[in-house]
Amino acid sequence: MQGVSSTSLERYPAITKEKDIAPAENEQNMSSQVNHVRHVLAVASGKGGVGKSLVSAMAAVELARCGLKVGIMDADITGPSIPRLFGMTARPASSMGGIIPPETETGVKIISMNLFLYDSGQPVIWRGPLLTSAIKQFWTDVAWGDLDVLIVDLPPGTADVPLTTFESLPVDGILMVTTPQELASMIVEKAAGLAKQMHKPILGIVENMAMVTCPHCGEAFELFGPSHAEELADHIGAPVLARLPIDPTVTALADTGHVEDVKMAAFAPVAEALAEYVATPSTVPPAPNPAPAPKVSCSPCSGDSTG
Amino acid sequence: MQGVSSTSLERYPAITKEKDIAPAENEQNMSSQVNHVRHVLAVASGKGGVGKSLVSAMAAVELARCGLKVGIMDADITGPSIPRLFGMTARPASSMGGIIPPETETGVKIISMNLFLYDSGQPVIWRGPLLTSAIKQFWTDVAWGDLDVLIVDLPPGTADVPLTTFESLPVDGILMVTTPQELASMIVEKAAGLAKQMHKPILGIVENMAMVTCPHCGEAFELFGPSHAEELADHIGAPVLARLPIDPTVTALADTGHVEDVKMAAFAPVAEALAEYVATPSTVPPAPNPAPAPKVSCSPCSGDSTG
Question: B137 and which of A69, A146, B126, B141 could share a cystine (Cβ 3.0–4.6 Å)?
Fold first, then answer.
């Protein structure tokens, strides 16, 4: 079963039809040889719709504000959200060194399946093996260049894409995103189980959609009930880094492609934890010719765009 | 890469390890020969976390209240939500006629991967081919018996599971679930694109999480911004059946396994449309020995559990 038409991808010989994709295991092409990616952070959940993409984007923007070199690989091939959050429509250019990831206003390099489509609503109807190949190519065939951290925004589930990401990329940290619903906790536990089986360290938990403030009376309330984050933290052995509100201002900025203008005070502990993680050398072998760990000296944003 | 341990599945020879699964294309075993399923309704979205499972469960309960025979196939193998919504932990029994789906209090028959696990938090780490086989076996090896409608709760994305469901099951109706976020609309459009490519009719759109009522001042507001449902309806050529609120009462009932106690007035148009759909003979060839279409004469619930 084909997915997107080959015509939309023919400018990118690297991203091609299933039958043309050679086994990419341990393959190193020209672009991967010139890449220096010090850390690979996976943003995972297991459950859909908890805000993985928003957390990935906010994390990238906060780290870029600290002067770090950041990339985002949108690993949700069939439901990509990242370009929309950044208002990005630029199609990636192709060079001898590989596919060149477009940069956002704050300098975050981005690769997403939606950047390869002529119409963002076009479905990518691909089975597992092709999804797997796309993830491997997003790693080996993209000219990421010199990055302090590549953030991988994972799709829901514990199937092909998360599995391939953990198997084929030097992931050295995972951020788990959840919501206060018990159902979400149960499914996030599954994703944490996958991470443990793959021996990947979970840096912490972000509980999204924890509360909302009524625009009429200004009172805050817990829309999805009381938090289960601490119980989840006990189960999976990782700390709760932050509980984030649903904020209509943030939603509006994200929905209109202005995620780089978001400032959310509640996100500061996440940014701090990530800055510390990036400043610590990875224990996982990175790409060839690793560059030294960056010196990070900034206090992540503690402002708030929500007024 | 294996997923759940084989020990947890060995009681169910039908649901087994990847290497043991024979090609199931066009396969009809004993259970599928005694099944009479008149309609197969897929609840889809493309995007995760929009409330597909809640809509599937509420639809099943409403139709069961009308006296119809209803089943739910939880096709989200790696992130199954259905058993939790119904508070169901019964393990399916196995018989010569196939796997026997446990029934909820209102008589809805349910099959979900989580019913086969010893621990609901255990991850199912399966790649596409095994997911595909599971879906086919949920169709052919489960003793669904006589059903007016089987509701298939699809996972997010447009990869293996939705594709296999549309290819291998006689789906004759799709309910699309979305939220007011533009991002959701974009991804729902992808799922609608898949449905169109597979020539499956979209019955309508349910916009979930459309508004919320403040518990302090009682004022309603649009948490995720203004609706995009009508634009989406224009794009995909299907009507908006309902806009559902986020209701903390409903969330609490669903989170504690009491979805059968939910009564939401806003859902009535969806139930009516589905009752009409079930009362109309399917144009897709069903399982062998089809029974006549049922006579439905009920007005779906117009009450409200939210007080």
Answer: B141
8 A C-beta contact, residue B97 and residue B143: yes
For A187, residues 6+ apart whose C-beta sits below 8 A from its C-beta are A45, A46, A47, B79, B81
Would the ipTM clear 0.90, i.e. be above it?
no
* Digit-coded pLDDT (tens) for B47-62: 999 999 999 999 999 9
Each residue's pLDDT tens digit, B208-224: 999 999 999 999 999 99
Q: Which residue of A has its CA nearest to B254?
A: A183
Alpha-carbon dihedral A30, A32, A36, A41, rounded to 10 degrees: 160
Are the beta carbons of A79 and B187 separated by less than 8 Å? yes
Residue A163 CA to residue B138 CA, distance in Å, equals 24
> What local confidence, expressed as pLDDT, does residue A20 receive?
34
Note whether A123 contacts B254, CB cutoff 8 Å. no
End-to-end Cα spacing for chain B? 49
Residues in A closer than 8 angstroms to B128, CB to CB, are 127-129, 131, 159-160
Least CA distance to B50: which residue of chain A? Answer: A49
pLDDT: which is higher, B195 or A294: B195
The answer to whether the beta carbons of residues A155 and A177 sit under 8 Å apart is no
User: Rounded to the nearest 5°, which phi and psi values hold at A119?
Assistant: -130, 120
